[in-house]
Structure to design on (132 residues):
């Protein structure tokens, strides 16, 4: 390779690495220290939570494996809006997911879902749990 090309490649590489800034803690201080979040957009957006866009995918990811079809655990199916709505209305869906006393903690054998997911689910429930 000609010397001049080699130098331009090398300087390009140096420029790229100089621009690359990988200290996440300095780039996103709010993620690490909530006192830094003031004035920033709330990272957990609970506005306009949809069944199709949020709730159904959340249940599909964490719950459906045990709660679908004829062999559903505890005979609780969460594979359609109508079925999910039943367990929203009797309080068992959120009680179980929020690990409230008197309910079996879900997902069974797994960790409680992140606070933001639960906050969004709660917002959807509080807004009437519509099939949106
Ligand atoms: C590994 C399988 C498994 C997964 C994953 C799972 N469940 Fe369950 N679920 C069960 C079993 C088994 C029961 C019956 C528990 C019992 O009675 O001991 C149950 C019970 C329940 C109940 C009734 C709880 C009560 O106390 O009334 C609800 C509601 C429920 N699950 C919802 C969910 C939701 C929502 C998720 C996802 C966040 C989920 N489950 C994930 C296996 C599972």
């Amino acid at each position: 390779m000609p010397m001049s090309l080699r130098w331009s490649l090398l300087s390009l590489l140096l420029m790229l690495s100089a621009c690359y800034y990988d200290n996440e803690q300095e780039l996103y201080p709010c993620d690490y220290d909530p006192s830094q979040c003031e004035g920033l957009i709330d990272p957990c957006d609970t506005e306009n939570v949809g069944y199709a866009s949020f709730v159904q995918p959340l249940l599909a990811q964490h719950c459906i494996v045990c709660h679908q079809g004829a062999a559903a655990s505890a005979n609780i199916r969460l594979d359609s809006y109508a079925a999910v709505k039943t367990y929203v209305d009797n309080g068992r869906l959120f009680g179980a997911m929020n690990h409230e006393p008197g309910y079996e903690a879900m997902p069974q054998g797994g960790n409680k879902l992140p606070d933001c997911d639960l906050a969004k689910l709660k917002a959807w429930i509080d807004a009437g749990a519509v099939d949106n």
Summary: The mean pLDDT is 88. The CA atoms of residues 28 and 36 lie 9 Å apart. The radius of gyration is 23 Å.
